[in-house]
Amino acid sequence: xxxxxxxxxxxxxxxxxxxxxxxxxxxxxxxxxxxxxxxxxxxxxxxxxxxxxxxxxxxxxxxxxxxxxxxxxxxxxxxxxxxxxxxxxxxxxxxxxxxxxxxxxxxxxxxxxxxxxxxxxx
Length: 122
What we know:
122 residues, seven-stranded mixed β-sheet, four-stranded antiparallel β-sheet, 11 strands, 48% strand, globular
């Protein structure tokens, strides 16, 4: 079982930046693809970004491409999501996830954190 703990959420003005972190509990972190997903009230959970176990391949939702960057450090068992040029529509609970495949599907992930709230004010 992989335990994932997100941090770094908060309130930011539109145009600002936040950096989310996700710390994983297991030493086998490096064998997992990692992803970030988000969920707004009344909406389904949606894909934001994913990164392969090696860090060599990254994937982004069209809505965040060019603004968000996913990265990882396997020595630190940590994955980050750097979010720039934030918009009010980015407001959501952001979830870190781990699984066997890096990609845009929730089905690829089988371990989830509890989420961290990001609120972007206009």
